[in-house]
Design brief:
With about 160 residues, this protein is α/β, with parallel strands linked by helices. The protein is built from seven helices and six strands, in the order ββααβαβααββαα. A hairpin with a 2-residue loop joins β5 and β6. Bound molecules: uracil (URA).
């Protein structure tokens, strides 16, 4: 249901496990996970230093987007995880995490780059690593890096 340091100051929230995550029982260990690891390294951090969780805890069939009722049920669990970890800031990776945490229909493009809040905890939405892996979305990598720098300075300065 999560990976990383329970005392982490920074928490990442993704969508849900894919095939690799399902096999290993850990979030973000497949291709998207490798990119997330690189993003964390680029921030000068270690994966073991942050906390990583997903909105839904079971792999949706064929990796489909979680259904609203699945997000609702697993979201309760996610909210409790956040309350236990009490991070200084949250990074919502992609639209599903943004929707689950902010209850908004706005897309990532509109939300990213500006601070949002989850029950008083500053929250930054950015692109999901799977989105950033697609060759035609390479421009978004620059924007994602801007978002990560904001998080980094807020959390660690
Ligand atoms: N994508 C996610 O959103 N979460 C994972 O754990 C892996 C891929």
């Amino acid at each position: 249901f999560a990976d990383g340091d329970p005392n982490a100051r920074l928490m990442f929230v993704g969508e849900g496990p894919g095939a690799d995550e399902d096999m290993q029982g850990l979030p973000f260990v497949g291709k998207a996970g490798q990119l997330l690891n690189n993003m964390i390294t680029a921030m000068g951090l270690k994966r073991e230093q942050v906390y990583i969780a997903n909105v839904v805890k079971c792999r949706p069939p064929e990796n489909r987007t979680p259904l609203p009722e699945e997000m609702e049920i697993c979201g309760q669990y996610l909210f409790r995880q956040i309350m236990v970890i009490k991070p200084k800031a949250i990074c919502a990776l992609g639209g599903t995490a943004a929707k689950a945490l902010l209850g908004t229909k706005e897309g990532v493009t509109k939300l990213r780059g500006n601070w949002q809040s989850w029950h008083g905890i500053p929250l930054m939405v950015t692109y999901h690593p799977s989105y950033l892996l697609r060759p035609y979305n390479q421009n978004a990598k620059h924007e994602a890096w801007e978002d990560l720098k904001k998080l980094l300075h807020f959390v660690y300065d």
